[in-house]
UniProtKB/TrEMBL annotation:
Annotated Gene Ontology cellular component terms: cytoplasm
Subunit structure: Monomer.
Domain named Mur ligase central: residues: 47-275
Record keyword Disulfide bond present: no
Pathway assignment: Cofactor biosynthesis; tetrahydrofolate biosynthesis; 7,8-dihydrofolate from 2-amino-4-hydroxy-6-hydroxymethyl-7,8-dihydropteridine diphosphate and 4-aminobenzoate: step 2/2; Cofactor biosynthesis; tetrahydrofolylpolyglutamate biosynthesis
One Gene Ontology term from the biological process aspect of the record: folic acid biosynthetic process
Name by which UniProt lists this protein: Dihydrofolate synthase/folylpolyglutamate synthase
NCBIfam families from the UniProt entry: folC (TIGR01499)
SUPFAM superfamilies: MurD-like peptide ligases, catalytic domain, MurD-like peptide ligases, peptide-binding domain
Species this protein is from: Loigolactobacillus rennini DSM 20253
Source lineage: Bacteria, Bacillati, Bacillota, Bacilli, Lactobacillales
């Protein structure tokens, strides 16, 4: 047997090579061919972007469920357990189903590896293959696939979607994607398929130019936020959410609400709405304003400005790169400018630590504390974080020590925010849940 139990299955998954020097779809193409092309049996919306992918996928899933559709989602990373990455209607794959799946897929992959030992299928390619095989075996109406990194050579790019989505383009993973926004956008635009519509968010001009040119070259209709669909009358709600009006693709939603905060989350909701409406039209299904509003209103998303405690106010946000930290800072300034905010920060060492910390330090009401977490070999040590800061900041070797220390300094009207990494937020969230 390839894997005897669930833990052994996880070891088989995580024990694979992380990546190869050259990005290529060759390995995943050979793998899906060995399984009779499960990707061709799926109806897919494909979502790329530097930030916001997870929120858009979450919005799309809730919109589709409100429509009565059975929906598979493929996301990364996970917040609590690996199984979350492959879910149906929000329910992660069971341990037994994952074990059975690994035992079904693993032996064939081992044969492919043996045929080319220096070019073995990577961990993410293997997980992508597991997802495609599993979803092809289920009775799904729709599959929403989140890109891992980039898009052009990402393993998920073997799908041909109903709609492609490019949420944002910013500086992240530059070692793999390039040092300019145009180069990064070239990778994101790689998911655009000939003749298939594409939806784009608020992209920087040089990134939008690449996406626009790629869509034109491939004959793909382009729907651009701010041009082809819009949001207006945005209003933060006391109930920890946003209200807004959406206009686009022959639809208008007045007083639509989402259970998340931030102008960028309103953008993400508008992007998801547009992609979903386009998908429904291509599936020849009717579009109901009531159903669309119902889906958005239910689209809670863990770890994105998530309130885990009311008194005192404790919030988790997975901002993990410079663009995400800038968006978070804008929301803190706009919606919580009257509060003192104590920020416990931990991150991965390969992120843009200097600008991320500078963005937080530029907010006059922020009191910053540096710490670290466990469980990831790429975590930045507190020494590395301190070196990235122009001023000396309080440091705690363990975030569990930072929590009581910060709480002692806070008043009842202050906010405590954990941020810097989704992996960090996962660990903190597990603590609060238990």
């Amino acid at each position: 047997m390839y894997a005897k139990n669930y833990q052994a299955a996880l070891q088989k998954i995580h024990g694979r090579p992380k990546m190869h020097k050259e990005g290529s779809l060759k390995r995943i193409q050979q793998a899906v061919a060995a399984f009779n092309h499960p990707e061709q049996q799926l109806t897919v919306i494909h979502v790329a972007g530097t930030n916001g992918k997870g929120s858009v996928v979450n919005n799309l899933r809730h919109l589709a469920n409100a429509q009565g559709l059975t929906v598979g989602t493929f996301t990364s990373p996970f917040l609590t357990r690996f199984n979350e990455r492959i879910s149906i209607d929000g329910q992660p794959i069971s341990d037994q189903a994952l074990l059975n799946l690994v035992n079904q897929v693993g032996p064939k992959v081992a044969k492919l590896d043996a045929a080319d030992p220096t070019n073995q299928i990577t961990e993410f390619e293997f997980i992508t293959l597991l997802m495609l095989v599993y979803f092809a075996q289920q009775a799904l109406d729709l599959v929403i696939v989140e890109v891992g990194i980039g898009g052009l050579t990402d393993a998920t790019n073997v799908v041909t979607p109903l709609v492609s989505v490019i949420v944002t383009v910013g500086y992240d993973h530059m070692a793999l994607l390039g040092n300019t926004l145009a180069e990064i956008a070239q990778h994101k635009a790689g998911i655009i398929k000939s003749g298939q519509p594409v939806v784009s968010g608020r992209l920087p001009a040089e990134a939008q130019a690449v996406v626009t040119a790629t869509a034109a070259e491939k004959g793909s209709p382009l729907y651009q936020l701010g041009r082809d669909f819009k949001v207006s009358q945005r209003q933060p709600l006391a109930s920890w959410g946003e209200s807004f009006t959406y206009t686009g693709v022959q639809q208008q939603l007045k007083d639509a609400t989402i259970p998340m905060l931030g102008a960028y989350q309103v953008d993400n909701a508008a992007i998801a709405l547009t992609a979903f409406i386009l998908a429904l039209k291509r599936l020849h299904q009717s579009v109901s304003v009531k159903t669309l509003k119902q889906g958005l209103a239910q689209a809670k998303w863990a770890g994105r400005l998530e309130k885990v405690n009311a008194q005192p106010l404790i919030v988790l946000d997975g901002a993990h790169n410079e663009p995400a930290m800038q968006a978070l800072a804008q929301t803190l300034k706009a919606d919580f400018g009257q509060l003192d905010i104590y920020v416990v920060f931990a991150a991965l060492k390969d992120k843009a630590l200097v600008p991320m910390l500078a963005t937080l330090q530029a907010l006059p009401q922020v009191h910053l504390v540096l710490t670290q977490f466990t469980g990831n070999p790429r975590v930045a040590s507190v020494t590395t974080l301190q070196e990235a800061s122009p001023v000396t900041l309080p440091v705690f070797e363990h975030w569990q020590e930072a929590l009581p220390a910060v709480l002692q300094k806070m008043s009842a009207d202050d906010m405590l925010l954990f941020t810097g990494s989704l992996y960090f937020i996962s660990e903190v969230r597990h603590y609060f849940e238990s």
